[in-house]
Amino acid sequence: MTSPNLAQDLPKKPIPLRVTFILNALMMVLPFVFYGVFTSQNIQVGTLDPQWFLYTGAAYIASFAFLVSFILKRNFVGFRAMFFVNFVIAIPAGAYIGMVIALVSFGLSFNQKIKAYFLVD
Fold first, then answer.
1. How many Cβ atoms sit within 10 Å of the Cβ of residue 2?
2. Which of 18, 61, 62, 102 has the CB geometry, 3.0–4.6 Å to 87, for a possible disulfide?
3. For residues 119 and 74, is the Cβ–Cβ distance under 8 A?
4. Burial, 40: exposed, middle or buried (Cβ in 10 Å; 0-12, 13-18, 19+)?
């Protein structure tokens, strides 16, 4: 007896949602890359301690876990709230790339295909 393929019954994730996912996954890695470069090359940006990159990266990892959870549960409010949280996470470290990614992700959340995936009117 064969079991039905449940993956065929579920709607595919739209491209804008995949782009949002990839951008936010990239945000988890970037702070650690910057930390490595800044500490190995002795680069100093104003009075910013490179340790903030580690805190920012850890916070992005936690927020990404929540973002994935909200996507799987199809919780649209939580999905959008994570972009606000990501923007706030970026402020102490002055992570302008993180701020831009959060704003782009929030903008993509208005896409009709993403709204349809989350079953939002």
1. 4
2. 102
3. yes
4. exposed
* Tokens (6 digits) for 115: 């709204």
Degrees to nearest 5, angle at CA 38 with 34 and 41: 135
61's CB contacts (< 8 A; 6+ apart) are 28
**Tokens at residue 107, please?**
């903008």
User: Do residues 31 and 97 lie in contact, with contact meaning Cβ atoms separated by under 8 Å?
Assistant: no
Cα–Cα distance, 30 to 97 (Å, whole number): 9
Residue ranges per domain, the chain? 14-35+50-117
The token pair at 72 is 């799987």
Tokens of 74: 């199809």
> Any idea which residue has 């992700």 for tokens?
105
* pLDDT per residue as tens digits for the range 46-99: 788 889 999 999 999 999 999 999 999 999 999 999 999 999 999 998 889 999
